[in-house]
Structure to design on (731 residues):
């Protein structure tokens, strides 16, 4: 494969004859190659850009639904006492909010970004397995339809927390638990298929000359994330299967009466669960590593150390799961092991944070919306990292365990970490996707409204937790009233702020100032060599890698 | 590289990756026995050693270890269940018998299963049971009561800093499981 002509066919096999020979009649010439109009275009599509768009739109819809549930939670917690919802419904809201945000919002958003960007970044014409790509997206809405419909069943939806600890999810769960289990199975299949597609694309479809150490960090972080997904999603599937058979078929994996052990559930769940939290943050690292150099107009500081740090985090993530279980009565030696391993993770993470800061050092910085979100990510994610370190200290964890301190911690790393990076990515690549510049003024308003409200929302939770307020309660002691009111106000403001983002995206998709091929002066990467919006079939001939 | 060979290459790699899926799925299930083995080997999690031979060891008269008994009854279990004595003081190596009383308060036959746990967990490996009602499930007719025996010895290797052990039993209603012939655990 020396020069140009042949990689052509590796996008969908239906008619790849056109783009090579066409000049002007492109649009009418090949009806069978071109997207069908209307809804069928989206259902049948095997184009990585279409599928990326589907994933991103779906994840935003899920973000709004999960967010609406968070609003119900915060409305109930606005004052002590039970005002708005029943405790059981409250529990369903915390559970489904968590499930939707993890599996419906954050993970599909990353998969959407991967679909859109990875082929363009590595010089591939499409994802390696386009038909599977279509399928891995389209089973996702089914999974969430099942999960959400279980809320309307007799006995209600899942109410045992997104971590579905046994025996809450077995002995004491509603009959709809079967639907929960099947929904998780389908979500798992979807993410595994997506991950396989990413791995095969990155390994086999790179343009000639695109060596591994030339890949953009977003591609690197996604490659490692995909391996994590393939390794741990089947373990989650095994866990939910055991829950299913324990509840409905008389097995006793987690039932002490039959010789099982409920603590075993926590081991298996967190063996999946801890790599899962890195699945939700590693692609963020890749996004921020793309945006910070662009707006600092400097090369990324310490590229290879970034790659090694990402790999180290991924490997270490398999050795820390029991830090979620310090209070289950583990022997001291095990607690120390998991404490030190957990603290060890802050080393590669620290390398990353210092590299980003060093990239900005003496750069000529400008503060467009993506950069603002990226900088906020660095600062606020680090705050979340620090509270993680506090939680890693075993003796201290006995006080923090299952309090609002934990809630504050994981919302700092997931909302101001993962979600902020996704927002940054959306602003950064929107001009490439739509061909139009977004409204910078509205974008900035969205950023500042989000930044202020998110901190009003989550920062006081640290103090609530330290003062002893337990998580997952619909009612609380009177001394927590003031801070909870503040938190709720922050929550409503943050929820409303996200509607600004919706407006920005819709406006941008509909029109606006035309975007040049490279709207950001300092941007680097193959995606900026092609016109905006990116053509439906890109890199039909492999690009030349300098 | 032409289209066909790239497709083949993609197919091969995805097949390899797909193989990881059943492997890791099975690994999830394999964690169940692995966990038991791990707990047994390390003596973690308060799992108790089952030792069918009574102690033939020299009794260490220089030391006394106190073994306390606790019972709890799982929800949905219509029995009373308690130890006859709250604790015993024993020398390591000495065979000891203690009794537990149970009574079925329901007007239906019920099958109970006691699940033991030892605290501190690391001391569990020194508590040897030669006979225990917890080895099998216990059926009781309506209103019937029973005295159940536990025969144990504490092995002399028990570290001197451990002077008190607590043996706790949770009693579960396994009538349904027993009717499904899954009595053996």
């Amino acid at each position: 494969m020396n020069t140009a002509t042949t990689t052509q066919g590796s996008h969908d096999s239906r008619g790849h004859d056109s783009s090579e020979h066409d000049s002007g009649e492109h649009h009418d010439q090949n009806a069978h190659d071109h997207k069908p109009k209307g809804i069928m275009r989206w259902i049948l599509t095997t184009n990585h850009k279409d599928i990326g768009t589907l994933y991103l739109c779906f994840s935003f819809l899920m973000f709004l639904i999960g967010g609406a549930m968070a609003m119900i939670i915060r409305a109930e917690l606005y004052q002590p006492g039970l005002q708005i919802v029943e405790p059981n419904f409250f529990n369903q809201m915390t559970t489904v909010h968590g499930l939707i945000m993890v599996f419906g919002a954050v993970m599909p958003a990353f998969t959407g970004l991967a679909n859109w960007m990875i082929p363009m970044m590595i010089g591939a014409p499409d994802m390696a397995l386009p038909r599977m790509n279509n399928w891995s997206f389209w089973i996702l809405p089914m999974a969430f339809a099942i999960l959400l419909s279980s809320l309307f069943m007799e006995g209600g939806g899942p109410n045992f927390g997104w971590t579905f600890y046994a025996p809450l999810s077995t002995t004491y769960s509603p009959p709809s638990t079967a639907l929960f289990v099947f929904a998780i199975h389908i979500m798992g299949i979807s993410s595994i298929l997506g991950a396989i597609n990413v791995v095969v694309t990155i390994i086999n479809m790179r343009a000639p000359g695109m060596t591994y150490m030339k890949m953009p960090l977003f591609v690197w972080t996604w490659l490692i994330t995909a391996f994590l997904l393939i390794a741990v999603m089947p373990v989650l599937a095994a866990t939910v299967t055991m829950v299913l058979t324990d509840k409905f078929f008389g097995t006793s994996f987690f039932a002490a009466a039959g010789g099982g052990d409920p603590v075993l559930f926590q081991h298996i769940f967190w063996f999946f669960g801890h790599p899962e939290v890195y699945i939700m943050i590693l692609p963020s690292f890749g996004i921020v590593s793309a945006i910070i150099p662009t707006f600092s107009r400097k090369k990324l500081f310490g590229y290879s150390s970034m790659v090694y740090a990402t790999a180290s985090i991924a490997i270490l993530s398999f050795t820390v799961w029991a830090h979620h279980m310090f209070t289950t009565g583990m022997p001291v030696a095990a607690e120390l092991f998991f404490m030190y391993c957990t603290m060890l993770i802050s080393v590669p993470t620290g390398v990353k944070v210092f590299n980003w800061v060093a990239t900005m050092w003496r750069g000529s910085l400008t503060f467009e919306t993506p950069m603002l979100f990226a900088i906020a990510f660095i600062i606020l994610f680090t705050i979340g990292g620090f509270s993680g370190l506090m939680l890693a200290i075993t003796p201290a964890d006995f006080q923090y365990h299952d309090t609002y301190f934990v809630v504050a911690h994981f919302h700092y790393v997931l909302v101001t970490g993962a979600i902020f990076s996704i927002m940054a990515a959306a602003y950064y690549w929107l001009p490439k996707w739509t061909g139009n510049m977004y409204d910078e003024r509205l974008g900035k308003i969205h950023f500042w409204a989000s930044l202020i409200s998110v901190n009003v929302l989550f920062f006081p939770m640290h103090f609530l937790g330290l003062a002893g307020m337990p998580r997952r309660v619909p009612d609380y002691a009177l001394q927590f009233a003031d801070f909870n009111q503040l938190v709720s106000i922050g929550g409503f403001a943050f929820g409303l702020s996200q509607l600004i983002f919706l407006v920005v995206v819709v406006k941008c998709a509909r029109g606006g100032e035309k975007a040049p091929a490279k709207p950001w002066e300092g941007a680097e990467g193959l995606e900026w060599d092609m016109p905006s919006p990116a053509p439906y079939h890109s890199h039909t001939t492999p690009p030349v890698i300098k | 590289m032409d289209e066909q060979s790239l497709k083949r290459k993609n197919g091969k790699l995805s097949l390899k990756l797909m193989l990881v899926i059943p492997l890791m799925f099975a690994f999830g299930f394999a964690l169940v026995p692995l966990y038991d083995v791990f707990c047994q080997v390390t003596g973690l999690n308060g799992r108790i050693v089952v030792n069918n031979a009574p102690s033939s060891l020299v009794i260490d008269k220089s030391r006394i270890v106190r073994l306390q008994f606790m019972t709890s009854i799982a929800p949905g279990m219509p029995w009373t269940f308690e130890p006859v004595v709250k604790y015993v003081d024993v020398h390591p190596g000495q065979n000891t018998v203690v009794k537990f009383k149970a009574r079925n308060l329901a007007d239906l036959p019920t099958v109970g299963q006691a699940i033991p746990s030892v605290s501190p967990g690391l001391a569990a490996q020194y508590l040897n049971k030669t006979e225990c009602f917890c080895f099998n499930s216990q059926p009781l007719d309506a209103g019937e009561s029973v005295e159940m025996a536990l025969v144990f010895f504490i092995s002399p290797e028990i570290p001197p800093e451990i002077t008190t052990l607590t043996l706790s039993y949770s009693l579960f209603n396994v009538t349904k499981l027993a009717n499904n012939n899954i009595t053996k655990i």
Remarks:
- The longest helix of chain A spans residues 87-122.
